[in-house]
Amino acid sequence: MSPQPRAEKVLRNIGQLLTMDPAAGGPGDAARDPTAGLGLVLDAAVAMAGDRIVWVGREKDLKGQVDTEGATVEDMGGRVVLPGLVECHTHTLFAGSRAQEFARRVGGASYEEILAAGGGIHSTVIATRQATLDTLVALGKERLDTFLSFGVTTVEIKSGYGLNLEDELKLLRAAAELAQQHPVDVVPTCLGAHVMPAEHKKQRQVYIDMLCAELLPAVAEEGLARFCDVFVDSGAFSVKEAETILRRGLELGMKPKMHAEQITRSGAIALALELGAVSVDHLEKVTEEDARALADSKTVAVLLPGATYFLGRTDFAPGRMLADAGCKLAISTDFNPGSCHSENLPLMLNMACLYNGIYPREALLGATRWAAAALDLDNEIGSLTPGRLADLLILDTRDFRNLIYHFGVPMTHQVYKRGKTVWAQP
Ligand code: NIG
Ligand code: FE
Question: How far is the centre of ligand 1, averaged over its atoms, from the C-alpha of 265 (Å)?
Fold first, then answer.
């Protein structure tokens, strides 16, 4: 018999524990079971030591299975506990505001029109280039605090508002600084290929050559990004351009991600799969053929309903079709100043149910287990099993369904990151 794990801290009196244990199920589980795949344990306890989980289960089994001598015990008051939420797609580091653009869009101007006329992302690029690294870190801190207040314990952050060597590096260095300073874990992605910078519009290859010959090698050299992302769309980069950039990223050790099939269909999914992308994100224009290919791969399909919503569009990604095809679905905010200015990930889960057509249990898995997989971190985070990080969200409710059903309101009671309380309800 293996020795009992030793606990340093025990959370007891958990009314509903959602472990999201991969052993509890996979895509395509019985649609009618509202808890399939969630690893639901009633009257549960969680034991941790250092920054890791050492045991989860029914509280009545704790004493016989875990050495709790000397452990501190916290009473969860019958509340819900689930893994800290994982944000797998954000543009958290930027300066300036697009509130004026929002008003223009409400007045009838389209996102594409504003972008083509040099506004949109370009206006954020101007403001971000003017900002110092310290300013960006300070802005980033405030935003990570907001994410944390919604129970998010890991945030992917993309560069992409610098669009030259110096300012892209500044953004990724700010992300590295934030990772040091903030309890939320930051996962950095290089999105030098967000859009073509205004000054290179007429000589696209010059910018792509700079990305491949200078930026990506510098990013790799300093270890500033885990992933390389490209926005593939008619107003951004072509599939062919994306291939050059993502292959270069791969050579340098950065796994591919892709903004794909958002506004105009490009057929980019085939390339993403050929390159083994960890995720393809947006997907409003995805086809059934794409879905079948995705389901057969390890690539996670990331839904960003907040972006469709905030752009005032109705062409939400076909989440139901993707789920029925057997795709692994993650949900994220896409937090950015132009197309989704909100850090409220639980609100996105509500939208994913109503507008992408996925079931609440699929949405919950999409902000935990599959979001972790979209960051290639599913062995560390996104589910609560022995050995994984003790990142926990404690909800101020006894019914886990309220996280999605009671939409738009704060529901966080307490957050643990790596075994320590980092947020508590004021
Ligand atoms: O993910 N799709 C491209 N980029 C962002 C929008 C960024 C912006 O408008 O500033 C997105 O939606
Ligand atoms: Fe995005």
Answer: 16
Q: Model confidence over 196-244: pLDDT tens digits? A: 999 999 999 999 999 999 999 999 999 999 999 999 999 899 999 999 9
Q: How confident is the model at residue 3, as a pLDDT? A: 82
Q: Domain ranges in the chain?
A: 9-83+383-424, 85-373
How many Å lie between the centroid of ligand 2 and the Cα of residue 89?
A: 6
Q: Is 193 helix (H, G, I), strand (E, B) or coil?
A: strand
Average pLDDT, the chain: 96
Please identify, by atom number, the ligand 1 atom nearest to the C-alpha of residue 282: 1
Read off the amino acid at residue 234: S
**Whole-number pLDDT of residue 66:** 97
Only one residue has tokens 């309903």, namely: 305
73-85 mean pLDDT: 98
Residues with CB under 6 A from ligand 1: 91, 120-121, 124, 231, 259, 262, 307, 334, 336-339
Q: How far apart are CA 360 and CA 354, in angstroms?
A: 9
Which is more confident, 33 or 199?
199
Token pair listed for 182: 């903030």
- Decide: 299 and 291 in contact? Cβ < 8 Å: no
**Measured in angstroms, how far is the CA atom of residue 340 from the centroid of ligand 1?**
8
- pTM, entire model: 0.97
User: 9-83+383-424 and 85-373: same fold?
Assistant: no
Pairing of strands 300-303, 329-331: parallel
* Closest ligand to the CA of 311: 1
CATH architecture of 85-373: Alpha-Beta Barrel (3.20)
Residue 282 pLDDT more than 70? yes
Q: Which CATH class is domain 9-83+383-424?
A: mainly beta
Ligand lying closest to the C-alpha of residue 158? 2
* CA-262 nearest atom, ligand 1: 2
- List Cα–Cα distances, 342 to 61, 163, 336, 337, 409, in angstroms: 41, 23, 8, 9, 13
Sequence-ordered strand ranges (E) for 177-252:
185-193, 227-231
Report how far residue 370's alpha carbon sits from residue 379's, in angstroms, rounded to the nearest whole number: 11
Of the pLDDT bands very low, low, confident and very high (cuts 50, 70, 90), residue 166 is: very high
Residue 98 CA: nearest ligand 1 atom is 10
Task: Give the tokens for residue 21.
Answer: 């244990």
User: Tens digit of pLDDT for each residue in 94-113?
Assistant: 999 999 999 999 999 999 89
Packed helices 121-130 and 165-181: angle between N→C axes, nearest 10 degrees? 70
